[in-house]
Specification:
- By secondary structure, the chain is α+β, with helices and mostly antiparallel strands.
- It contains 9 helices and 7 strands, in the order αααβααββαββααββα.
- 59% of the residues lie in helices and 14% in strands.
- The protein has a 5-stranded mixed β-sheet with strand order 2-4-5-7-6.
- The protein is elongated and about 135 Å long.
- The relative contact order is 0.07.
């Protein structure tokens, strides 16, 4: 395996360790030499003072080095424990998601069968009402209205279960061609019931004819659904407006063009002291038991893996806006 080239002027771990060892040996030698001087006979008072100062300085520096090294070990251990905890929770969340997917698939299939029968029977009843015996019935209009309502709600149930089934089966992280606006519309539909109960209006401003981008649809869905749910949770007490937008950003620089997705709410906002920690693992402003503090951290990692970035802007009592920037590769741009 070819060795990785080291940048000029940089230190690797081995060089840093050797340098530290050299410094420690140097100051230990200072203490030893000072001790030997103090044991000599007929030495002047100034020499004794110099030897004592050397011993004190060397001892202080060695103690400082020892403290720094212990502190570094403690920090590394703490970070390792945190990473282990993050991985354990991610495994737990993955297991939960897998269980949800299995449950959602089962529910969708179980509901689809009776709904299909209901729609079919409604059509049969409508055929019966078209017969001569029912043409003069005074309730014929009401019967037809009721049948139309049954058919419409039946088709609505089928659409909901199909979307639930579609959401449950999009779990692989394979990269493929994705139309961002389709994903956004699907998620808005999935969140429709929750926003209605929370008295939240949803506004979408989606730029038409956006190019397809190459990424994992399930990962993009996970990120956007998390941001939408966070916005809904922020406004669930007082209601408000959820704004979702998409557009292309053509900057003409070496960075290339980007797809911009914004999710904004007019909820209570995030205090300035929390904004710097919003993407930290286990940090959450939600009540105990309602959030793990991993959602935004995982979203940040997913978008970073795509080569993009998540930015957040928030004003207390005015609301919060999350901006997702996903790069559009040259190949994708040329295919527009």
């Amino acid at each position: 395996m070819a060795q990785e080239k080291q940048k000029p002027g940089s230190f690797n771990h081995l060089q840093a360790r050797n340098l530290l060892l050299t410094i420690v040996i140097f100051f230990v030698m200072m203490i030893v030499v000072s001790s030997l001087i103090l044991f000599q006979k007929d030495i002047s008072e100034n020499t004794i003072k110099i030897a004592l100062i050397m011993m004190l300085a060397a001892g202080t520096i060695l103690a400082s080095i020892a403290f720094i090294m212990v502190r570094k070990v403690a920090v590394r251990t703490e970070r390792a424990d945190e990473k282990k905890k993050v991985m354990e929770l991610q495994v737990c969340e993955t297991d939960k998601l897998a269980s949800f997917e299995e449950l959602a698939t089962g529910i969708a299939h179980e509901i689809n069968n009776p709904v299909a029968i209901m729609i079919e029977e409604a059509g049969w009843i409508e055929d019966l009402l078209a017969e001569e015996a029912f043409k003069n019935d005074k309730n014929l209009t009401e019967f037809k209205r009721a049948l139309e309502q049954i058919r419409a709600q039946g088709h609505r149930c089928k659409e909901i279960t199909q979307k639930l089934l579609s959401f449950a089966t999009k779990t692989d992280s394979r990269v493929q061609e994705v139309h961002v606006n389709e994903v956004i519309r699907e998620l808005i539909t999935l969140s429709e019931q929750k926003t209605r109960y929370s008295n939240i209006d949803v506004e979408s401003h989606l730029q038409e004819n956006l190019p397809a981008i190459q990424l994992s649809p399930s990962e993009l869905q996970q990120v956007l659904l998390n941001l939408i749910n966070n916005a809904i949770d922020a406004m669930e007490k007082a209601g408000g407006t959820l704004r979702v937008s998409s557009r292309m950003e053509e900057n003409g620089t070496a960075e290339g063009d980007h797809m911009i997705i914004q999710i904004a709410d007019n909820g209570p906002g995030i205090p300035p002291g929390d904004l710097n920690r919003i993407f930290d693992p286990f940090f959450t402003t939600k009540p105990v038991g309602k959030g793990t503090g991993l959602g935004l951290s995982i979203c940040y990692g997913i978008i970073k893996k795509m080569g993009g970035i998540i930015e957040v802007r928030s004003v207390v009592h005015e609301g919060t806006t999350f901006k997702v920037r996903i790069p559009l590769s040259k190949k994708q741009k040329d295919s527009e």
